[in-house]
Amino acid sequence: MSTLEIRDLHVSVETKEGPKPILRGVDLTIASGETHAIMGPNGSGKSTLAYSLAGHPKYQITSGTVTLDGEDLLSLSVDERARAGMFLAMQYPVEVPGVSVANFLRTAKTAIDGEAPPVRSWVKEVRGAMDALRMDPTFAERSVNEGFSGGEKKRHEILQMELLKPKFAILDETDSGLDVDALRVVSEGVNRVRSGGEVGVLLITHYTRILRYITPDFVHVFVDGRVAEEGGPELAERLENEGYDRFLPTGSITA
Ligand code: ADP
Ligand code: MG
Ligand code: MG
């Protein structure tokens, strides 16, 4: 049983005009086996939260804490965070030309476990996971994210999550750009990982659509860099019907 605890987190982003405060006191606790959805309008700071947890250098933590089972996560390097059990799927994943998906996965697994996985069982596991995500076997030989379609990027993320078996997975807009079939396949993947009851999932999304396939235990509405309201799955339904308008100043535009 693990706990990821975010306490009063304030984050500024580096801009040409200097640091710009984005997160204004985020409080959130996720335990193993729980799925939390963060929903909110565009520009509310959802991706900033994901990048901050990932250790992106552009995002400066100005105050607050993030701990994984009591250990300070923010003092760890990106690699150390992964080894500690954090998995972060970014809204805009980077391309790694010249590195195949197969090599990337094996290298990541080796780095996280501290030893190379046994070849036979690993190959079988990768094939099985790719199969379940309806990915063609030739996909393993392609360069990471190079020329991937939106759907391929998301499947690749879920493939990583299934194989790397993190303690906590942060999925930023995993639903964006997916058609209904891809959304179903990707959601099934997340649900397979969830069904083990061991991973904690933070599902960041603008739209309620993915929550029809992945039922969260908790929903947090994110507005202007902090959690404005919390509830259960019924809150997502309410947002689907009402949108974010009631959380925003009158006259503002919701995108
Ligand atoms: P969301 O993911 O909820 O749409 P973001 O975290 O991407 O929100 O952005 C929150 C706010 O921070 C926005 O106003 C955005 O313009 C600003 N922001 C985020 N990253 C940067 C950056 N690298 N440079 C300048 N502004 C940024
Ligand atoms: Mg956005
Ligand atoms: Mg975003």
TrEMBL record:
Residues 4-249 form the ABC transporter domain. Pfam families: ABC_tran (PF00005). Transmembrane segments: none annotated. The keyword ATP-binding applies. The keyword ATP-binding applies. Keywords: ATP-binding, Nucleotide-binding. InterPro entries: AAA+_ATPase, ABC_transporter-like_ATP-bd, FeS-cluster_ATPase_SufC, P-loop_NTPase. NCBIfam families: sufC. Belongs to the ABC transporter superfamily. Ycf16 family. This is Fe-S cluster assembly ATPase SufC. The lineage of its organism: Bacteria, Bacillati, Actinomycetota, Actinomycetes, Micrococcales. The gene is sufC.
